[in-house]
């Protein structure tokens, strides 16, 4: 399988809506946003998230020549000058039928490469719930390391989740 990763644009908003909503429905424990909150966003708001001047950059993954969007990863650089060396990774997902085909690894690699290309960026940061061990392994294979754990971080549907915070030093060889 060939995985293609590219930056999404406002023209991708319908595919982004479908992929993100499917991810929120398939793995609700992995995200802070729930499917109903996301579904309430209008097309204009979604297109704005994918605009060239948006606060974040959302990457999309595609398998072979299939037009369906099968993976997402968003990078957001901190805007406050003392934190501008940091980029946060959000909303990573791979559609269940596309898992195990290198989509997640391709997205993370593309995100790391993009963040490395931004002047002054020295580290990537993300959080992963304890209910997502496969995601944590993906990030650790890419070089991310856990630097902290927050018990009782999220409560949803009667469950309590622990959140692991990971970072990747982009200055290391």
In words, what does this structure look like?
Pfam families: Acetyltransf_1. InterPro entries: Acyl_CoA_acyltransferase, Bact_Acetyltransf, GNAT_dom. The protein is of the alpha+beta class and 173 residues long. The protein has a single domain (3-169), classed as 3-Layer(aba) Sandwich (Aminopeptidase). 29% of the residues lie in helices and 35% in strands. Strands 1-2-3-4-5-7-6 form a seven-stranded mixed sheet, sandwiched between helices. The chain is globular, with a radius of gyration of 16 Å. 28% of the residues are buried.
Mean pLDDT: 94
Major sheet: 7 strands, mixed
> Any idea what the CATH architecture is?
3-Layer(aba) Sandwich
So, the CATH homologous superfamily?
Gcn5-related N-acetyltransferase (GNAT)
* Termini gap: 29 Å
Strand content: 35-45%
Write the layout of secondary structure elements.
Layout: E1 3-7, H1 13-26, H2 35-39, H3 43-49, E2 56-63, E3 69-77, E4 86-94, H4 103-117, E5 123-129, H5 133-141, E6 145-156, E7 159-169
Parallel strand pairs: 4-5
Antiparallel strand pairs: 1-2, 2-3, 3-4, 5-7, 6-7
Question: How is this structure best summarized?
Answer:
Residues 3-173 form the N-acetyltransferase domain. The protein has 5 helices and 7 strands; from the N terminus they run E-H-H-H-E-E-E-H-E-H-E-E. The longest helix is centred in the middle third of the chain and has 15 residues, at 103-117.
